[in-house]
Design goal:
Elements (H helix, E strand, L loop, with lengths): L3 H18 L15 H14 L8 E14 L2 E8 L2 E8 L18 E10 L5 E12 L15 H6 L1 H7 L1 H23 L3 E2 L5 E2 L11 E4 L4 E5 L4 H9 L4 E9 L11 E10 L3 H20 L3 E4 L2 E4 L5 E4 H9 L9 H10 L10 H13 L7 E7 L8 E2 L2 E12 L2 E8 L4 H18 L9 H7 L6 E7 H9 L24
């Protein structure tokens, strides 16, 4: 028994056949558009202001998807949607060239190109009076019922193209994301950084504490991994004398997903020779303020009811002081797993699932500390156990020169004074390897011998930054889910429908 959608699809296929039988190509190779919808409206308004004669008329060619249809006997109105918005067009039987009756083979969802003069209707809507028209793509599958303003979450994420057709806000987020990336590149390039590319398939998934995705390279008969960070390859470039580098690219971590996590996400990592984490703090403040001002024309934005101010200076708080303030735990008195476990239980945090002292501190920060950081805040000076790639503080070797930036309770960036002592680096990564073996932990950093070899050739003092692009887009678009700002987020598998016997 055919479904209602099958019936509608068959009707559209019949219309497709009629168009072809008339010699119409329903899928032409191109179309010469003169204006987008908003360009046409803007030029029309400008022509009215600047023209001495009201008889001057502006001829345009526009194209878009049919999203509305209103027939009035010898005239038919269509709304066409393009990248800039929508524009109304009118087909008059005594004006349009070609077969007016062929419009009956056009459906909601089809792409159409039209040419004609612009005019204003009685309701002051700029409209194209169609002289010539052409089918550009015949849609043989109808848009879902109630497609306009589509809100069904699964459909919006699984069929993002329908979401983009239906929801202007979704289209605006795609544009905003592109503008944010352009602004970041402009800022970094103006500061003399070189944008580079590093491998995605790597022999050692190092540079972070995460479970990697693995694959097998048949030609070389070896296992490889999707990178969990770009850090170690970028620092190899610094060793080679490329003193200021950055990369914007995909990073992959084999973990779950929630409103702030997706296993495939976008990072910007940068490394600058002869700088430290304090220099990177200043750059981060300048960068995010520059991006916000550049894409939104302001440095104060609303996010989930809070006014977030990106302008500098940001609040700075030492990690051990923040843990004392918000969790009432003195890390100086809880230097081992047993004492820290008791302290966590006292404040209602279950320490189980965390097998290392550093993992426990991280859990305390997640639950008790970072939710308090609504305004941009740097949490600085981390325990050495949590930071195998960061340089120790000269005055206190139990802590390292590291900060994480938090906004609206989310981690947005992470930065170090990069460890450039190859002997110390080897010892710390060997400790990470031993923790993985001892506790069967996947989420520890890994020893990359080739990286150690690079360090042994000498890396200058370097400040590094990792910035989460997806979360930054969330903040600047006022979206509380990462899946709203990633065009094609990871989703659970759809259940397999049982077929009738």
């Amino acid at each position: 028994m055919p479904t209602p959608e099958d019936v509608l699809r068959d009707a559209r296929l019949e219309k497709l056949g009629r168009l072809r039988n008339k010699g119409v190509d329903p899928y032409p190779s191109n179309y010469q558009r003169s204006h987008t919808s908003q360009q046409a409206k803007a030029e029309y308004s400008s022509s009215l202001e600047n023209s001495d004669s009201k008889t001057d008329r502006l001829f345009v060619s526009v194209a878009g998807r049919v999203i509305a249809w209103r027939s009035m006997g010898k005239a038919t109105f269509l709304d066409l949607l393009d990248i800039d918005g929508k524009i109304q067009v009118i087909f008059k039987q005594d004006v349009v060239e070609g077969e007016y009756k062929d419009l009956k083979d056009v459906d909601i969802g089809d792409w159409v190109g039209v040419s004609g003069f612009l005019f204003e209707t009685r309701t002051k809507e700029v409209t194209v009076e169609v002289k010539k028209w052409q089918v550009l793509s015949k849609s043989i599958r109808p848009l879902p019922e109630k497609w306009h303003g589509l809100t069904e979450i699964e459909t919006r994420y699984r069929q993002r193209y329908l979401d983009l057709i239906a929801n202007e806000n979704s289209r605006e987020i795609v544009k905003l994301r592109s503008n944010i990336l352009n602004a970041i590149r402009s800022f970094m390039n103006d500061r003399g950084f070189l944008e580079v590319e590093t491998p995605i398939l790597v022999p050692v998934a190092a540079g972070g504490t995460a479970r990697p995705f693995s694959t097998h390279y048949n030609m070389l008969r070896r296992d490889l991994y999707l990178r969990i960070a770009t850090e170690l390859y970028l620092k190899r470039l610094v060793v080679g004398g490329i003193e200021k580098v950055y990369e914007i690219g995909k990073t992959f971590r084999n973990e779950g997903f929630d409103h702030t996590h997706n296993p495939e996400f976008t990072m910007m990592e940068s490394y600058e020779a002869l700088s430290d984490y304090k220099d990177v703090m200043c750059m981060t403040e300048d960068l995010l303020s520059f991006v916000s001002q550049g894409v939104l024309n302001k440095t104060e934005v609303e996010f989930e009811g809070n006014n977030i101010d990106f302008s500098s200076p940001w609040k700075k708080i030492v990690l051990k002081d923040a843990v004392k303030q918000y969790a009432d735990i003195d890390l100086g008195l809880c230097k081992d797993i047993d004492s820290l476990s008791l302290a966590m239980e006292r404040i209602g945090i279950n320490p189980s699932g965390q097998k290392t002292w550093g993992g426990m501190v991280d859990k305390i920060i997640d639950i008790k500390v970072q939710p308090n950081f609504i305004q941009p805040t740097f949490l600085i000076d981390y325990p050495v156990e949590m930071s195998p790639l960061a340089k120790k503080k000269p005055e206190d070797s139990d802590y390292v020169e590291r900060f994480e930036g938090f906004i609206a309770g989310m981690e947005v960036c992470n930065a170090f004074s990069e460890l450039n002592d190859p002997i110390d680096q080897r010892e710390r990564l060997e400790m990470q390897e031993s923790l993985r073996v001892k506790y069967d932990l996947e989420e520890t950093d890994r020893l990359d011998e080739d990286y150690i070899l690079a360090l042994e050739h000498g890396m200058p003092p370097t400040g590094g930054l990792g910035l989460g692009i997806d979360r930054l887009v969330m903040l600047l678009s006022n979206q509380n889910s990462i899946r709203e700002v990633i065009a094609f987020p990871q989703l659970k598998s759809q259940p397999v429908e049982e077929k009738d016997n």
